[in-house]
């Protein structure tokens, strides 16, 4: 999936933060980092393991907002990761501004988005290079370290590709949609294969699929052209590969060598692909109500 040529994306939507790479992780921290990584992975609220992060030796903040991602052409958005992030967020804004009130009685209010380098402070705790992207409901902000996208392919075997990166951003936006429609408030904070935590993650995948399916028909109000070229089968595979790579069973097998459904918090790779596809094909908020679905 590529941004339609001729498209332009204004600057000022995504904040930049972070004071460069952190000094590194103190000795003995590997196990803790792995736990943090799993818990943070595209997760909702990392506050629970804040204490664990404190033990990794990552200290200090000094990482306030230092500016914004500037204006980008579609060509830049197709080649530069920061531009791609900014453009993806704007395409998501346009899609949900139209879609959410049309299908629900909820108005879309955009989340803040922070692109950080190294580490930054959120109201859900410290975000570091090891955490991966996440959504913090306490400050309604999506935090993304674009370096995460390299690890997505190198460590978890995703095939990479721009749509995979867009999927991750769209998934975090999915959590914001869940915040707006009240699903995040309603869900328990439990774990396990049939838990609300897993359902919340799968619902965000479904919302990401909705956007992927609709983005090629969403017109940029500033240019009058659609945001994205139609999605190809190969590109859809990239997105699904990213979804599969961050499934709990895949992460657990890669890191621990075995699968324990009791500690699932994101769902299996197959479930994540299924719900992404449901959103992509149906395009309906109601079809993505994983929280109340009989079978997931
Ligand atoms: Zn998530």
Structure in a nutshell:
By secondary structure, this protein is an alpha/beta fold.
Structure description:
Helices cover about 45% and strands about 10% of the residues. Helix 4 (about 80-105) runs parallel beside helix 6 (about 160-180), helix 6 (about 160-180) crosses helix 9 and helix 8 crosses helix 11. With about 300 residues, it is α/β, with parallel strands linked by helices. The model is unreliable at about 20-40 and about 45-65 (pLDDT under 50). The protein has helices at about 30-40, 50-55, 75-80, 80-105, 150-155, 160-180, 185, 195-215, 235-245, 250-255, 270-280; strands spanning about 10, 15, 65-70, 70-75, 110-115, 120, 125-130, 135, 140-145. It has one domain (about 10-290). The strands form three sheets. It has a five-stranded mixed sheet with strand order 3-2-5-9-8, with helices on one face. Strands 1-4 form a two-stranded antiparallel sheet. Zinc ion binds near residues 42 and 43.
Helices and strands, with pairings:
Elements: E1 8-9, E2 15-17, H1 30-40, H2 50-54, E3 65-68, E4 72-73, H3 74-79, H4 81-103, E5 112-116, E6 119-122, E7 125-128, E8 134-136, E9 141-144, H5 148-156, H6 162-181, H7 183-186, H8 196-214, H9 233-245, H10 248-255, H11 269-282
Parallel strand pairs: 2-5, 5-9
Antiparallel strand pairs: 1-4, 2-3, 6-7, 8-9
Helix pairs in contact: 4-6, 6-8, 6-9, 8-11, 9-11
Residues 42-44, 171, 175, 201, 204 line the site of zinc ion.
């Amino acid at each position: 999936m590529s941004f339609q040529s001729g498209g332009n994306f204004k600057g000022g939507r995504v904040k930049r933060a972070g004071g460069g790479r952190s000094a590194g992780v103190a000795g003995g921290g590997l196990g803790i980092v792995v736990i943090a990584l799993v818990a943070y992975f595209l997760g909702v609220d990392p506050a629970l393991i804040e204490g664990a992060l404190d033990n990794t030796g990552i200290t200090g903040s000094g990482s306030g907002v230092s500016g914004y991602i500037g204006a980008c052409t579609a060509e830049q958005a197709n080649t530069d990761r920061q531009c791609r992030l900014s453009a993806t967020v704007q395409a998501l804004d346009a899609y949900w501004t139209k879609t959410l009130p049309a299908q629900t009685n909820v108005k879309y209010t955009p989340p803040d988005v922070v692109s950080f380098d190294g580490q930054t402070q959120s109201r859900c705790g410290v975000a570091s290079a090891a955490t991966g992207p996440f959504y913090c409901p306490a400050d309604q902000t999506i935090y993304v370290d674009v370096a995460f996208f390299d690890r997505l392919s190198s460590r978890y075997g995703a095939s990479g590709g721009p749509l995979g990166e867009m999927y991750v951003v769209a998934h975090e936006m999915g959590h914001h949609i869940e915040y707006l429609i009240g699903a995040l408030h309603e869900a328990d904070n439990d774990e396990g294969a049939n838990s609300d935590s897993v359902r919340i993650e799968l619902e965000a995948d479904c919302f990401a699929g909705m956007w992927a399916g609709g983005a090629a028909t969403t017109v940029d109000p500033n240019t009058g052209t659609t945001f994205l070229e139609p999605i190809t089968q190969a590109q859809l595979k990239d997105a699904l590969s990213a979804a599969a790579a961050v499934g709990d069973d895949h992460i657990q097998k890669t890191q621990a060598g075995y699968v324990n459904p009791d500690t699932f918090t994101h769902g299996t790779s197959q479930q994540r692909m299924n719900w992404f596809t449901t959103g992509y094909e149906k395009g309906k908020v109601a079809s993505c109500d994983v929280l109340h679905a009989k079978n997931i």
